[in-house]
Specification:
single chain, mainly alpha, elongated, disordered N terminus
Length: 183
């Protein structure tokens, strides 16, 4: 037990600090925010009534047919993408160098923010065509997809935490550039 404590102490002393608790919670929250919409899509693909008539499912979404593969694939891809922030708070597994991972995380955060802003603009400027029947279906859809709005904020917070921790862990290569004087 003392060797584990010693190994952990040396790892943190030489590398970046571990992720703060709030960043870990935020990374887990991203995955949880994507889960309801993915489950809703899977329910739609398996034939559970989610507000669309059978005719709309056949003609618009091609369910049953290739639409099932698309909807299930979209759900799986969305959940796998939502697990990306877990890499930023993990101390055990680093598939890429910190600088590359930070660049990917900032790019993902930027894309998520732009997509969220685009969705808000579209929602308020374009009358979207809906095929749902009934107010209950719209309410359920809104409750299921509402958590997706939190993902850009959470992802940006986790990315900022990761970049801050790994920037603080780097040592400058040239001491002259940091402001020390030469004799």
């Amino acid at each position: 037990m003392t060797t584990t404590a010693t190994a952990t102490a040396t790892t943190t002393a030489t590398g970046p600090a571990p992720a703060p608790r709030w960043a870990r919670w935020a990374a887990h929250a991203v995955a949880l925010c994507a889960l309801p919409s993915g489950l809703w899509r899977i329910a739609m693909a398996s034939g559970v009534y989610v507000g669309y008539s059978d005719q709309v499912l056949r003609e618009v979404f091609d369910i049953p047919g290739w639409g099932v593969a698309y909807v299930v694939g979209l759900s799986v891809f969305g959940e796998l993408a939502a697990l990306f922030p877990m890499l930023l708070v993990s101390e055990r597994w680093r598939p890429l160098p910190p600088r590359v991972l930070a660049g990917l995380a900032w790019a993902a955060s930027g894309v998520l923010v732009l997509v969220a802003l685009w969705q808000v603009v579209v929602a308020f400027t374009v009358e979207s065509q809906t095929y749902m029947s009934g107010g209950t279906a719209h309410a359920v859809w809104a409750v299921v997809f509402a958590p997706l709005a939190a993902i850009p904020v959470l992802m940006t917070a986790v990315t900022w935490s990761y970049a801050k921790r790994h920037r603080a862990g780097r040592r400058p290569a040239n001491p002259v550039a940091v402001g020390s004087r030469l004799p």
